[in-house]
Amino acid sequence: MLKEIYHLLSRAERRRGGWVALSVLVRAILDFAGVAALLPVLILVMGDKPEVQKSLLLCLAVLAFILIKNGLVVWLARLQSRFLLDLYKEFSRKMFCNYYNRGLLFLKSKSSVQLGHEVNFVCYTFSLCVLAPIFRVAGEALLLVLMVTALIVFAPSAGLLLCVGFLPLVVFYVWMVKGRLRRYGAEELDARRNQSRTVVEAFRGYSELEISQAFRASLASFDEGARIINHSRLRMEILQLFPSCLSEVSIVVGLALLIGLGGGDLRVISGVFAIAAYRMIPSVRGILNNWSTLQNASHSIRTVVEGVRAPEMIADGKESVLPFHHSITMDDLSFAFPDGGIIIQHFNGHIDKGERIGIRGTSGSGKSTLFNLLLGFFEPTSGEICIDGVRLTAANRKQWHKRVGYVPQEIFIIQGSLAENVALGRQEIDRSKVTRVLEQVQLKEWSEALSEGIDTSLGE
Prior knowledge:
The protein is 69% helix and 7% strand. It is built from 16 helices and six strands. The strands form two sheets. A four-stranded antiparallel beta sheet has the order 2-1-3-4, covered by helices on one side. The longest helix has 50 residues, at 52-101.
């Protein structure tokens, strides 16, 4: 897991991650120092005749130290959180671009709901439910090592008994829940993905579902998904309650062994043991809870690894310039989808500039596929398409698109104003040009009748 995560990071991210890892060590030392600062107060209070003034001054000094320490801890935690959120933003952006650049064939082979879920939610889960728990587990583990080491040095019997109380229960918990947490996490992810798809499909297909009276089937699918999510989450919640119980049991067992074996100044040793346990209980609980969160979200690693891997891009070369003065030629054109379904076979055609051509055929005969080939969205299985004798390729496709007007059979409207839809993708909108275009397509009068004109909001 750590090796996969390491290879995901760029050199700059690894360097920054190293500094964050160092901050985890510093935080562990600061937390240890905060606990250690309580010991002088404990020893002084447990003395035969503690001086009130001296005790108050010592408490004031310890309080000042703890406040400064906690301020530093908050600052270091903020650095760590900023690093994780920056990784989420970077991975999400990279996955978004990579999915888009894999082309139309890839996008049509996947559910848009699934891809959107992976770009947004899975990347967020990876950063906040995989990377963050790794840092937290490392920090708490370092603190535990420091605490146990110091306790063994100060009171060997108490330190060893604490280990005897903690370790068996931790090993038992890890053994008991490891496989279950991963399985519950994968089940919940699939169910949530299906829930999103069910809702989106129902809203998009309202007319068809209503005419066919098929909403009941969509609702049944939604209810089943909700049942799976609830069941997985309940099992997860139960498993995450175990650390609280185990840590408290281990403390009681340790104290019982300490009292039973006796030896040394039991009053001071018990006080030291109590202070150590006071900080170690949250640490053990934190380690187990974060470990369970990590196991539950570990499925996201594979998705992120696959998603941020950049597709092979063809750099623009000498043939990137693509004029169109004479004709479009399709020579022995064939196309088959990756699953082997042949759509177009040995197709030939010649269209002169200025001609108006209609292509007719039954549903599924390959009309849309032919236009996707002419636009360069699909690569021919064999044969070629030439523009004025120049072969259409991925390298010159963008130049060809500058000369193409395209009205798809599926309506595409972004959530934005009428002007933003007409000037699709432009940061600066030429309003006079938008008006001119609307006039050309005979929508000027309609747009002027809208409540806010070309600033009227549109959506799907």
